[in-house]
């Protein structure tokens, strides 16, 4: 990893969380991503689905990231079922750039539901 990449990982909250450097409880994890509760939930169920690989955001996706994006979406479907919101309904949301509400610049998908 380049020095720039090392600095980025150290400074990125979601890289630290995905790397196990915080006390965050994972509801699901595998070699590619982690799922945990949002600390400022907007609904009874508000999960974040975060790739372990640092991708700044949607605009930074590369062709080689297609599989991880697919895995994020399939994991969202599975987590909706696991948390009991699949039948009642839920939202999936990517915030893109500051003007689109992105606060942490590491790709992540919000799963929001349970009203």
Structure description:
With 115 residues, this protein is α+β, with helices and mostly antiparallel strands. It has one domain (3-113): HIT family, subunit A (2-Layer Sandwich), CATH 3.30.428. It contains three helices and five strands. It has helices at 3-11, 13-18, 66-82; strands spanning 28-29, 33-37, 45-51, 90-93, 109-113. A five-stranded antiparallel β-sheet has the order 1-2-3-5-4, with helices on one face. β2 and β3 form a beta hairpin. It is globular, with a radius of gyration of 14 Å. The model is unreliable at 1-7 (pLDDT under 50).
* SS-based class: alpha+beta
What portion of residues belong to β-strands?
15-25%
Identify the CATH class: Alpha Beta
Per CATH, the architecture is 2-Layer Sandwich
From the N-terminal CA to the C-terminal CA, the straight-line distance is 43 Å
Unreliable segments of 5+ consecutive residues: 1-7
- What is the residue-mean pLDDT, rounded to a whole number? 93
Number of strands: 5
Radius of gyration: 14 Å
Strand order of the largest sheet: 1-2-3-5-4
Number of helices: 3
Largest sheet: 5 strands, antiparallel
């Amino acid at each position: 990893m380049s020095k720039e990449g090392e600095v980025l990982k150290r400074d990125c909250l979601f890289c630290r969380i995905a790397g196990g450097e915080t006390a965050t409880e994972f509801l699901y994890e595998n070699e590619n991503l982690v799922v945990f509760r949002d600390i400022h939930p907007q609904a009874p169920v508000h999960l974040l689905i975060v790739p372990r690989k640092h991708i700044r955001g949607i605009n930074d996706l590369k062709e080689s990231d297609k599989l991880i994006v697919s895995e994020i979406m399939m994991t969202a479907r599975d987590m909706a079922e696991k948390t009991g919101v699949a039948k009642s309904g839920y939202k999936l949301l990517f915030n893109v750039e500051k003007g689109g509400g992105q606060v942490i610049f590491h790709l992540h998908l919000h799963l929001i539901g349970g009203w």
